[in-house]
Amino acid sequence: MNTFLVSRELLAWYDRHARGLPWRETHDPYRVWVSEVMLQQTRVDTVIPYYQKWLENFSDLHSLAAADERQAMQLWEGLGYYSRARNMLKTARILIEQRAGQFPDSIAELKKLPGIGDYIAGALASIAFGRDEVALDGNGLRVFARLAEFDQPINEAAGKAAIRELMQSMLPQGRAGDFNQAVMDLGATICVSHNPQCDQCPLTKHCHAFQNNTQDRFPLRIKKKPIPQYAVVAAVLRNGDTVLVDKRRADGLLGGLWEFPGGKVEEGEDLHTALVREIREELGVDITVHADIGTYRHAYTHFKVVVTVFEADILSGEPAALAADEIQWVRPVELDQYPMGKVDRLIAHSLL
């Protein structure tokens, strides 16, 4: 494979066909950073309105650093992977307090900031600062695995490192940012996971997988274990015209978001027994469980849940935040002011 020709032809294609995305209208490190954090594990079409709304509220590092966490989490709601938003707040405050509101321009210094790993550091360094650095994401892994009929699994460290080295050898001096974005665009629009549009690809004469008709075999991956599914219960506890919600602890799944109290059903428990136990552990009260009012399914990265929601009344005790940061009694019409995960937002909507 002639790496020089691959680079040149890919850039020529990008110059003609680059996607017109709002974050490509600037090299401002803040806006590049916001876009790249949002794009992790999330499709471009989903990100665009979130990106625009975020900038309407937090136009720069200073406004983000001064933001209330609840406001930031509300704007993020629906994007998932909520630790990204919390890390953005942390990073903004670090940069304001320690670096006079300036991003570092080196990979090593960028990676010291919360939530910035190899990919985002490479994207920021190359796109915002013009550094000759690789930004390798899932699209890049797929593109180069097919180009080279790469025989190592790309979901292992050794495989990623080898592809990174190949990509590094192709970086055009002074245009690494464009090259990285060209690879992303090619993987997102043409060299897609299933049924790649090879007839539109600018690199077919260099692509071993195309020449050998093996596109469907690459990239190689080590098979993951089956995703487990858990039964979960939640309670709608009422006090007059309000319902009780609690704020999840920041260091766990969906940290900082609000939820209806409950938890996972343990082995040997029925749903009612599990809910009584969970509420006692979580709030320190005893309840009586009434009819279920809905069942919701949701898939996270590493597991799935089936959540059954019950109306319930407090029999004894005063609710306390034993397993949460805080609790609140809230009118259902006001729940939209409390950032929630997808399932709890569906429950909140059902109460209206």
UniProtKB/TrEMBL annotation:
Reactions mediated catalytically: Hydrolyzes free adenine bases from 7,8-dihydro-8-oxoguanine:adenine mismatched double-stranded DNA, leaving an apurinic site
Top-level EC class: hydrolase
One MF term in the entry's GO annotations: 8-oxo-7,8-dihydroguanine DNA N-glycosylase activity
Keyword DNA damage: yes
Known function: Adenine glycosylase active on G-A mispairs. MutY also corrects error-prone DNA synthesis past GO lesions which are due to the oxidatively damaged form of guanine: 7,8-dihydro-8-oxoguanine (8-oxo-dGTP).
Family classification: Belongs to the Nth/MutY family.
Protein name (database record): Adenine DNA glycosylase
